[in-house]
Amino acid sequence: MATIIDGRALAKKINAQTHKRVAKLNQQGIHPGIAVVIAGDDSASLIYTRNKHKKAMKLGINSILRKFPRDISQNELLAEIDNLNKDDSIDAILVQQPLPPQIDQKTITNAILPEKDVDGLNPLNLGKLFANQNTNHPIACTPRGIMRMLKEYEVQLKGQNAVIVGRSILVGKPLLALLNNADATVTMAGRNTRDLTKLTQTADILIVAAGVPHLIGAADVKAGATVIDVGINRLSTGKLTGDVDFDSVKEKAGLITPVPGGVGPMTIATLMEQTVDLAQWRHHG
Ligand SMILES: NC(=O)C1=CN([C@@H]2O[C@H](COP(=O)(O)OP(=O)(O)OC[C@H]3O[C@@H](n4cnc5c(N)ncnc54)[C@H](OP(=O)(O)O)[C@@H]3O)[C@@H](O)[C@H]2O)C=CC1
Ligand SMILES: Nc1nc(=O)c2c([nH]1)NC[C@@H]1CN(c3ccc(C(=O)N[C@@H](CCC(=O)O)C(=O)O)cc3)C=[N+]21
Predict the structure, then answer these.
(1) Is residue 136 part of a domain?
(2) pLDDT at 44 exceeding the cut of 90
(3) Distance (Å, rounded) from C-alpha 229 to C-alpha 262?
(4) Any stretches that span the bilayer, and where are they (predicted)?
Protein backbone atom coordinates (compact mmCIF):
# COMPACT_ATOMS: atom_id res chain seq x y z
CA MET A 1 0.00 0.00 0.00
CA ALA A 2 1.49 3.30 -1.13
CA THR A 3 2.02 6.41 0.94
CA ILE A 4 -0.47 8.99 -0.29
CA ILE A 5 1.12 12.34 -1.04
CA ASP A 6 -0.93 15.05 0.65
CA GLY A 7 -0.97 17.94 -1.81
CA ARG A 8 -3.43 19.91 0.26
CA ALA A 9 -1.26 19.86 3.39
CA LEU A 10 1.88 20.92 1.54
CA ALA A 11 -0.05 23.61 -0.35
CA LYS A 12 -1.30 24.94 2.97
CA LYS A 13 2.27 25.27 4.24
CA ILE A 14 3.36 27.14 1.11
CA ASN A 15 0.28 29.39 1.20
CA ALA A 16 1.08 30.37 4.80
CA GLN A 17 4.57 31.47 3.72
CA THR A 18 3.15 33.35 0.74
CA HIS A 19 0.65 35.12 3.01
CA LYS A 20 3.51 36.40 5.18
CA ARG A 21 5.50 37.54 2.15
CA VAL A 22 2.49 39.48 0.85
CA ALA A 23 2.10 41.24 4.21
CA LYS A 24 5.77 42.25 4.12
CA LEU A 25 5.51 43.59 0.57
CA ASN A 26 2.34 45.49 1.51
CA GLN A 27 4.36 47.34 4.18
CA GLN A 28 6.69 48.49 1.39
CA GLY A 29 3.71 49.71 -0.64
CA ILE A 30 3.83 46.74 -3.02
CA HIS A 31 0.54 44.94 -3.71
CA PRO A 32 1.02 41.81 -5.83
CA GLY A 33 -1.61 41.40 -8.55
CA ILE A 34 -2.52 38.62 -10.96
CA ALA A 35 -4.70 38.77 -14.08
CA VAL A 36 -6.30 35.64 -15.48
CA VAL A 37 -7.57 35.63 -19.05
CA ILE A 38 -10.02 32.96 -20.12
CA ALA A 39 -11.74 32.45 -23.46
CA GLY A 40 -14.47 29.82 -23.57
CA ASP A 41 -15.53 27.32 -20.92
CA ASP A 42 -13.14 24.34 -20.67
CA SER A 43 -14.14 22.55 -17.45
CA ALA A 44 -10.63 22.06 -16.00
CA SER A 45 -9.94 25.75 -16.68
CA LEU A 46 -13.09 26.80 -14.87
CA ILE A 47 -12.13 24.74 -11.80
CA TYR A 48 -8.67 26.28 -11.85
CA THR A 49 -9.97 29.83 -12.32
CA ARG A 50 -12.44 29.56 -9.45
CA ASN A 51 -9.96 28.02 -7.03
CA LYS A 52 -7.14 30.43 -7.68
CA HIS A 53 -9.37 33.49 -7.38
CA LYS A 54 -10.54 32.30 -3.96
CA LYS A 55 -6.96 31.59 -2.85
CA ALA A 56 -5.63 34.94 -4.08
CA MET A 57 -8.30 36.80 -2.12
CA LYS A 58 -7.40 34.82 1.01
CA LEU A 59 -3.68 35.59 0.70
CA GLY A 60 -4.16 39.32 0.00
CA ILE A 61 -3.17 39.08 -3.68
CA ASN A 62 -5.20 41.25 -6.05
CA SER A 63 -6.85 39.04 -8.65
CA ILE A 64 -8.68 40.14 -11.74
CA LEU A 65 -10.47 37.92 -14.21
CA ARG A 66 -10.95 38.79 -17.88
CA LYS A 67 -13.52 36.38 -19.28
CA PHE A 68 -14.25 36.34 -23.01
CA PRO A 69 -16.65 34.35 -25.19
CA ARG A 70 -15.10 31.49 -27.15
CA ASP A 71 -15.48 33.39 -30.45
CA ILE A 72 -13.12 36.23 -29.40
CA SER A 73 -10.68 37.20 -32.19
CA GLN A 74 -6.92 36.87 -31.81
CA ASN A 75 -6.48 40.64 -32.17
CA GLU A 76 -8.94 41.35 -29.37
CA LEU A 77 -7.06 38.94 -27.13
CA LEU A 78 -3.70 40.47 -28.05
CA ALA A 79 -5.06 43.95 -27.26
CA GLU A 80 -6.10 42.72 -23.81
CA ILE A 81 -2.64 41.25 -23.16
CA ASP A 82 -1.06 44.52 -24.25
CA ASN A 83 -3.19 46.39 -21.70
CA LEU A 84 -2.16 43.99 -18.94
CA ASN A 85 1.51 44.21 -19.95
CA LYS A 86 1.31 47.99 -19.46
CA ASP A 87 -0.76 47.88 -16.27
CA ASP A 88 1.60 48.61 -13.38
CA SER A 89 -0.77 47.01 -10.83
CA ILE A 90 -0.41 43.62 -12.57
CA ASP A 91 2.63 41.46 -11.80
CA ALA A 92 1.43 38.16 -13.24
CA ILE A 93 -0.54 37.31 -16.38
CA LEU A 94 -2.01 33.86 -17.00
CA VAL A 95 -3.91 32.96 -20.16
CA GLN A 96 -5.92 29.82 -19.59
CA GLN A 97 -5.32 26.86 -21.86
CA PRO A 98 -6.76 25.45 -24.03
CA LEU A 99 -7.61 28.46 -26.19
CA PRO A 100 -10.34 28.26 -28.84
CA PRO A 101 -9.12 27.03 -32.29
CA GLN A 102 -9.09 30.43 -34.06
CA ILE A 103 -6.36 31.58 -31.64
CA ASP A 104 -2.72 30.63 -32.05
CA GLN A 105 -1.35 29.61 -28.68
CA LYS A 106 2.24 30.51 -29.56
CA THR A 107 1.38 34.04 -30.70
CA ILE A 108 -0.35 34.60 -27.35
CA THR A 109 2.46 33.25 -25.17
CA ASN A 110 4.99 35.29 -27.12
CA ALA A 111 2.96 38.45 -26.44
CA ILE A 112 3.09 38.15 -22.64
CA LEU A 113 5.97 40.15 -21.16
CA PRO A 114 8.55 37.60 -19.90
CA GLU A 115 8.68 39.40 -16.53
CA LYS A 116 4.90 38.93 -16.07
CA ASP A 117 4.73 35.42 -17.52
CA VAL A 118 3.59 33.49 -14.43
CA ASP A 119 3.09 30.26 -16.43
CA GLY A 120 6.73 30.39 -17.61
CA LEU A 121 5.65 29.67 -21.19
CA ASN A 122 7.34 32.54 -22.97
CA PRO A 123 10.27 31.18 -25.03
CA LEU A 124 12.73 33.32 -23.05
CA ASN A 125 11.65 31.75 -19.76
CA LEU A 126 11.44 28.25 -21.23
CA GLY A 127 14.90 28.75 -22.73
CA LYS A 128 16.36 29.72 -19.34
CA LEU A 129 14.80 26.61 -17.82
CA PHE A 130 16.21 24.30 -20.49
CA ALA A 131 19.62 25.99 -20.21
CA ASN A 132 19.46 25.31 -16.45
CA GLN A 133 20.19 28.95 -15.63
CA ASN A 134 19.86 29.62 -11.96
CA THR A 135 18.61 33.15 -12.47
CA ASN A 136 15.23 34.50 -11.35
CA HIS A 137 12.79 33.30 -13.96
CA PRO A 138 9.24 31.94 -13.73
CA ILE A 139 8.67 28.19 -14.23
CA ALA A 140 5.37 26.55 -15.18
CA CYS A 141 3.45 26.22 -11.91
CA THR A 142 2.34 22.58 -12.15
CA PRO A 143 5.86 21.25 -12.87
CA ARG A 144 7.38 23.50 -10.19
CA GLY A 145 4.73 22.29 -7.73
CA ILE A 146 5.46 18.65 -8.59
CA MET A 147 9.20 19.15 -8.00
CA ARG A 148 8.36 20.69 -4.62
CA MET A 149 6.26 17.63 -3.73
CA LEU A 150 9.02 15.22 -4.74
CA LYS A 151 11.44 17.19 -2.58
CA GLU A 152 9.08 17.21 0.41
CA TYR A 153 8.70 13.42 0.22
CA GLU A 154 12.46 12.99 -0.30
CA VAL A 155 12.09 11.18 -3.61
CA GLN A 156 15.52 10.52 -5.09
CA LEU A 157 15.85 11.84 -8.64
CA LYS A 158 19.51 11.49 -9.52
CA GLY A 159 20.05 8.41 -11.67
CA GLN A 160 16.40 7.37 -11.45
CA ASN A 161 14.21 6.57 -14.45
CA ALA A 162 11.48 9.18 -14.86
CA VAL A 163 8.74 8.68 -17.44
CA ILE A 164 6.39 11.52 -18.35
CA VAL A 165 3.18 10.68 -20.21
CA GLY A 166 2.06 13.86 -22.01
CA ARG A 167 4.10 16.38 -23.97
CA SER A 168 2.34 19.69 -23.40
CA ILE A 169 4.23 22.95 -23.17
CA LEU A 170 2.38 23.56 -19.88
CA VAL A 171 3.31 20.33 -18.07
CA GLY A 172 5.30 17.68 -19.96
CA LYS A 173 8.04 19.81 -21.49
CA PRO A 174 8.95 21.93 -18.45
CA LEU A 175 8.97 18.75 -16.33
CA LEU A 176 11.33 17.14 -18.80
CA ALA A 177 13.76 20.01 -18.24
CA LEU A 178 13.35 20.09 -14.44
CA LEU A 179 13.85 16.34 -14.01
CA ASN A 180 16.75 16.37 -16.45
CA ASN A 181 18.34 19.29 -14.56
CA ALA A 182 17.99 17.12 -11.43
CA ASP A 183 20.00 14.33 -13.13
CA ALA A 184 17.13 11.90 -13.62
CA THR A 185 17.01 9.81 -16.81
CA VAL A 186 13.90 11.18 -18.47
CA THR A 187 11.67 9.70 -21.19
CA MET A 188 8.60 11.47 -22.53
CA ALA A 189 5.69 9.60 -24.10
CA GLY A 190 2.73 10.68 -26.23
CA ARG A 191 -0.02 9.23 -28.37
CA ASN A 192 2.45 7.75 -30.85
CA THR A 193 4.57 5.95 -28.28
CA ARG A 194 4.89 2.24 -29.05
CA ASP A 195 4.09 -0.02 -26.12
CA LEU A 196 3.37 2.56 -23.45
CA THR A 197 2.98 -0.15 -20.80
CA LYS A 198 6.46 -1.50 -21.38
CA LEU A 199 7.88 2.00 -21.01
CA THR A 200 5.92 3.02 -17.92
CA GLN A 201 6.93 -0.24 -16.21
CA THR A 202 10.54 1.03 -16.28
CA ALA A 203 9.64 4.20 -14.37
CA ASP A 204 10.89 4.79 -10.84
CA ILE A 205 8.98 8.05 -11.11
CA LEU A 206 5.90 8.09 -13.34
CA ILE A 207 4.18 11.39 -14.11
CA VAL A 208 0.94 11.27 -16.05
CA ALA A 209 -0.52 14.36 -17.76
CA ALA A 210 -2.60 13.09 -20.67
CA GLY A 211 -6.17 14.06 -19.82
CA VAL A 212 -7.40 10.47 -20.26
CA PRO A 213 -9.30 9.06 -17.26
CA HIS A 214 -7.68 5.87 -15.93
CA LEU A 215 -5.06 5.68 -18.69
CA ILE A 216 -2.66 4.10 -16.19
CA GLY A 217 -3.59 0.96 -14.26
CA ALA A 218 -1.67 -1.28 -11.84
CA ALA A 219 -0.21 -3.37 -14.71
CA ASP A 220 1.49 -0.23 -16.10
CA VAL A 221 3.34 0.55 -12.87
CA LYS A 222 6.55 -0.84 -11.38
CA ALA A 223 6.17 -1.98 -7.77
CA GLY A 224 7.28 0.76 -5.37
CA ALA A 225 7.27 3.54 -8.00
CA THR A 226 6.35 7.16 -7.28
CA VAL A 227 3.21 7.98 -9.29
CA ILE A 228 2.18 11.60 -9.88
CA ASP A 229 -1.26 12.10 -11.43
CA VAL A 230 -1.71 15.48 -13.12
CA GLY A 231 -4.96 14.69 -14.98
CA ILE A 232 -8.13 16.58 -14.11
CA ASN A 233 -11.14 14.92 -15.70
CA ARG A 234 -14.74 15.70 -14.87
CA LEU A 235 -16.81 12.52 -15.25
CA SER A 236 -20.45 12.60 -16.36
CA THR A 237 -21.35 11.76 -12.75
CA GLY A 238 -19.81 15.11 -11.79
CA LYS A 239 -16.93 13.37 -9.98
CA LEU A 240 -13.36 14.56 -10.53
CA THR A 241 -10.81 11.91 -11.50
CA GLY A 242 -7.20 11.77 -12.65
CA ASP A 243 -5.41 9.81 -15.39
CA VAL A 244 -4.41 7.04 -12.96
CA ASP A 245 -6.67 4.30 -11.62
CA PHE A 246 -5.97 5.33 -8.05
CA ASP A 247 -7.66 2.43 -6.26
CA SER A 248 -5.63 -0.30 -7.98
CA VAL A 249 -2.36 1.62 -8.42
CA LYS A 250 -2.16 2.64 -4.76
CA GLU A 251 -1.77 -1.06 -3.88
CA LYS A 252 1.38 -1.30 -5.99
CA ALA A 253 3.08 2.11 -5.94
CA GLY A 254 5.42 3.40 -3.24
CA LEU A 255 4.08 6.95 -3.30
CA ILE A 256 1.01 8.27 -5.12
CA THR A 257 -0.88 11.55 -5.50
CA PRO A 258 -4.69 11.53 -5.31
CA VAL A 259 -7.11 13.54 -7.48
CA PRO A 260 -8.46 15.75 -6.06
CA GLY A 261 -6.04 16.77 -3.31
CA GLY A 262 -2.72 16.09 -5.05
CA VAL A 263 -1.17 18.13 -7.85
CA GLY A 264 -4.12 20.57 -8.20
CA PRO A 265 -3.72 22.39 -4.86
CA MET A 266 0.06 22.50 -5.42
CA THR A 267 -0.45 24.20 -8.80
CA ILE A 268 -2.51 26.91 -7.12
CA ALA A 269 -0.08 27.37 -4.23
CA THR A 270 2.84 27.62 -6.66
CA LEU A 271 0.93 30.12 -8.79
CA MET A 272 0.40 32.33 -5.74
CA GLU A 273 4.03 31.94 -4.67
CA GLN A 274 5.28 32.76 -8.13
CA THR A 275 3.00 35.80 -8.42
CA VAL A 276 4.73 37.14 -5.32
CA ASP A 277 8.14 36.19 -6.77
CA LEU A 278 7.35 38.20 -9.91
CA ALA A 279 6.19 41.21 -7.85
CA GLN A 280 9.39 41.05 -5.83
CA TRP A 281 11.66 40.69 -8.85
CA ARG A 282 9.90 43.50 -10.71
CA HIS A 283 10.26 45.91 -7.78
CA HIS A 284 13.57 44.82 -6.27
CA GLY A 285 15.31 42.97 -9.09
N1 LIG B 1 -3.63 19.36 -11.81
C2 LIG B 1 -3.17 20.43 -12.42
O3 LIG B 1 -2.69 21.34 -11.78
C4 LIG B 1 -3.20 20.50 -13.90
C5 LIG B 1 -3.91 19.57 -14.60
N6 LIG B 1 -3.91 19.57 -15.97
C7 LIG B 1 -4.62 18.45 -16.60
O8 LIG B 1 -3.65 17.54 -17.13
C9 LIG B 1 -4.15 16.93 -18.29
C10 LIG B 1 -3.18 17.17 -19.45
O11 LIG B 1 -3.17 18.53 -19.78
P12 LIG B 1 -1.99 19.22 -20.61
O13 LIG B 1 -0.70 18.96 -19.97
O14 LIG B 1 -2.43 20.61 -20.86
O15 LIG B 1 -1.94 18.35 -21.97
P16 LIG B 1 -2.79 18.48 -23.33
O17 LIG B 1 -4.22 18.20 -23.01
O18 LIG B 1 -2.40 19.69 -24.05
O19 LIG B 1 -2.16 17.26 -24.15
C20 LIG B 1 -2.30 15.93 -23.75
C21 LIG B 1 -0.98 15.18 -23.89
O22 LIG B 1 -1.20 13.83 -23.52
C23 LIG B 1 -0.81 12.96 -24.58
N24 LIG B 1 -1.76 11.86 -24.67
C25 LIG B 1 -3.09 11.93 -24.85
N26 LIG B 1 -3.63 10.70 -24.90
C27 LIG B 1 -2.61 9.83 -24.74
C28 LIG B 1 -2.53 8.42 -24.72
N29 LIG B 1 -3.60 7.66 -24.86
N30 LIG B 1 -1.31 7.87 -24.55
C31 LIG B 1 -0.20 8.62 -24.42
N32 LIG B 1 -0.22 9.97 -24.43
C33 LIG B 1 -1.41 10.56 -24.59
C34 LIG B 1 -0.82 13.79 -25.83
O35 LIG B 1 0.11 13.22 -26.73
P36 LIG B 1 0.50 13.84 -28.17
O37 LIG B 1 1.40 15.01 -27.87
O38 LIG B 1 1.24 12.75 -28.85
O39 LIG B 1 -0.78 14.23 -28.81
C40 LIG B 1 -0.45 15.17 -25.33
O41 LIG B 1 0.95 15.35 -25.32
C42 LIG B 1 -5.55 17.49 -18.49
O43 LIG B 1 -6.46 16.63 -17.84
C44 LIG B 1 -5.49 18.82 -17.77
O45 LIG B 1 -6.76 19.28 -17.35
C46 LIG B 1 -3.17 20.47 -16.69
C47 LIG B 1 -2.45 21.45 -16.05
C48 LIG B 1 -2.44 21.54 -14.60
N1 LIG C 1 -2.40 28.60 -18.72
C2 LIG C 1 -2.82 27.59 -17.96
N3 LIG C 1 -2.12 27.21 -16.87
C4 LIG C 1 -2.56 26.17 -16.11
O5 LIG C 1 -1.88 25.78 -15.11
C6 LIG C 1 -3.79 25.50 -16.45
C7 LIG C 1 -4.48 25.96 -17.60
N8 LIG C 1 -3.97 26.98 -18.32
N9 LIG C 1 -5.62 25.38 -17.99
C10 LIG C 1 -6.28 24.36 -17.21
C11 LIG C 1 -5.30 23.54 -16.42
C12 LIG C 1 -5.95 22.79 -15.29
N13 LIG C 1 -5.36 23.33 -14.08
C14 LIG C 1 -5.81 23.04 -12.79
C15 LIG C 1 -5.19 23.54 -11.67
C16 LIG C 1 -5.67 23.29 -10.40
C17 LIG C 1 -6.80 22.52 -10.22
C18 LIG C 1 -7.31 22.27 -8.85
O19 LIG C 1 -7.40 23.15 -8.02
N20 LIG C 1 -7.67 21.02 -8.54
C21 LIG C 1 -8.23 20.64 -7.29
C22 LIG C 1 -9.74 20.53 -7.47
C23 LIG C 1 -10.55 20.73 -6.25
C24 LIG C 1 -12.03 20.83 -6.61
O25 LIG C 1 -12.48 21.93 -6.94
O26 LIG C 1 -12.71 19.79 -6.55
C27 LIG C 1 -7.62 19.30 -6.88
O28 LIG C 1 -7.13 18.60 -7.77
O29 LIG C 1 -7.65 19.00 -5.70
C30 LIG C 1 -7.44 22.00 -11.32
C31 LIG C 1 -6.96 22.25 -12.59
C32 LIG C 1 -4.44 24.28 -14.43
N33 LIG C 1 -4.34 24.44 -15.73
Answers:
(1) no
(2) no
(3) 8
(4) none
Ligand 1 contact, 33 CB (< 6 A): no
Between the CA atoms of 263, 265, 269 and 274, what dihedral angle is there, to the nearest 10 degrees? 40
Task: Read off the pLDDT of residues 86-107 as tens digits, 9 standing for 90 and up.
Answer: 999 999 999 999 999 999 999 9
Distance 28 CA to ligand 2 centre (A): 32
- What number does the ligand 1 atom closest to the CA of 165 have? 32
Same-domain pairing of 172 and 85: no
166 marked as part of a ligand binding site? yes
Question: Which one, of 170, 148, 155, 172, lies nearest residue 12 by Cα?
Answer: 148
Complex ipTM, two decimals?
Answer: 0.98
Domain count, the chain: 2
Q: Is the CB of 257 under 6 A from ligand 1?
A: no
Q: How far apart are CA 231 and CA 263, in angstroms?
A: 9
- Domain holding 109, by residue range, is 29-117
Query: Does the annotation place 232 within a ligand binding site?
Result: yes
User: Is the backbone of residue 40 left (phi > 0), alpha (psi -120 to 50) or beta?
Assistant: left
List of E strands, the chain: 3-4, 33-39, 62-68, 92-95, 161-165, 185-189, 205-208, 226-229, 233-234, 240-241, 255-256
**45 and 151 belong to one structural domain:** no
Instruction: Point out the ligand 2 atom lying closest to the alpha carbon of residue 171.
Output: 5
Tens digit of pLDDT for each residue in 270-279? 999 999 999 9
Domain match, 253 and 148 both = yes
Q: Is the pTM for the entire model greater than 0.90? A: yes
CATH number reported for the structural domain that contains residue 61 in this entry: 3.40.50.10860
Residue 64 shares a structural domain with residue 159: no
Cα–ligand 1 centroid distance for 167 (angstroms): 7
